[in-house]
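Project standup — Tuesday

K.O.: blocked on the structure for the chain from last sprint. Re-posting the sequence here as requested.
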Amino acid sequence: MVITQPEGDIATASLDFDEFSFWNTEHQTMENISKEHTTALLTYLSKNYRIFEIQVSFPYLILFCRDGIPPQEKRPLSIAGCIAVWLNEDDAVPGDVSIGDFGECDDIVIEQELAADLRSFSIPKDSTLLRVATRYFPDASFISYISHSMIVEYATEDEDTWYNRLEKLPNGFQNVGVALSFVNGPLVATELERIKALELQKLSDVQKDDSDYVKSQGCFFPGTMLRVRSGNQRTAGIAVTKGLETRLTVGFPSWDKECETISEISGDETHFSVTQAETPVGYVCERTGTTDIGLAQLKNDIIFHNRFLDIPTTAKVLLSSRDIKFNDEFFIDSFVTRRQRLRCQGLRIGIENHAKEVMLNDDKEHPPATIGAGAGASISLRQGIYATGSLSEIHHEPRIRAGVCGSALVRLRKADGEATLQKGEISGFMHWSDLQLKNDTSGRLLCFADAVDDLVDAGWTIVSGFGKERRDIRRKSQMMG
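H.V.: unblocked you, prediction finished:
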């Protein structure tokens, strides 16, 4: 059995085998391996990682460890083409392997043009999701497509109203091989309400890089610590430009109280101040559409460089969500997590002003008829959905999860294996959030990132050669050893 582990850092490496893989690169899909290869895989994992049981739940390979989960630096993110999920012997399988409730009506047939774009392990066009929502689920607020499942999100309702709704919703699709489920309330928790509680537990007891790079190096970089007036700590994004303007991207929810008076954001240098560790560097002057991407204006004497500290590349180009494929791999670099590897698993869109549907005679035997489907519909928000396979480093600790907000995602490689890191492609910025899963206390596999589409549409591009040339700068925190 030939083993390939290309990256030197095992915590971000892929453990692959020449004889078999769950990921079919040629056809861009996932498939089962033979019984013989499954036995060989379990034998290898048992010998090297003390794994006593494996479960395949595409795109995840769930691993049960007999003597505890190996430390982060000794376990790969990906094994045989699947995202590795490391669990202790008695751990529950993470709740977001399966999300939502099912409708109780018969399966529906959707338009062939839409059906052709809905394939397992392939991200559909955002316009397809919008049309599905407006034509078949007119009251939906959001719609998500994750791996091989469509999840329709409704505004929060009381329990009786929700179960009455489920009685009128379809159980699935007749002509599409993907699952269909529904959630009561947005899939992503309301950030502003959560932040106020979490920030009471600031990042003081989390091992992190709190270096003041402006003081020590004369400039700062993506992934470094930012502080705001309230004391919240977030991750620096990247420098972007439009015309004569240059801005630094930041996670907008950091300004929790100030978010309640968004109309007053412009020019308020005090309330929306930004500090890099201990050095004041500027203030937030605008927000990008309905995303959580804020734009900060830096002081004239402050220098920012688009070179990452723990990722060997420089931010160079904004990557639209339309150019991202299922299983494309990405890095983030944050002062609370160092470098972390993610895989794109889907897309979430917000829906605004879409046309309404009516049920014919309230007949459960037939799908809804349409009156002007799609008329006036628009996409209010685009978010990439990413899997980490890392239940502790980002998700179990709320303080770490909050600190990651604003981190830029840079594409490492495409799903077909093409290396892209040196292209410096930025796909989005981490969106601090929780999944709303009922009765679930287990870890989370999925996280969300606001797409850069609104930045691109507004004319922003990444700054080229901004600031000083990079010196040999490394993180100074204890995290680096």
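K.O.: great, moving the ticket to review. DSSP finds nine helices and 28 strands in the chain. The chain has a mean pLDDT of 79.
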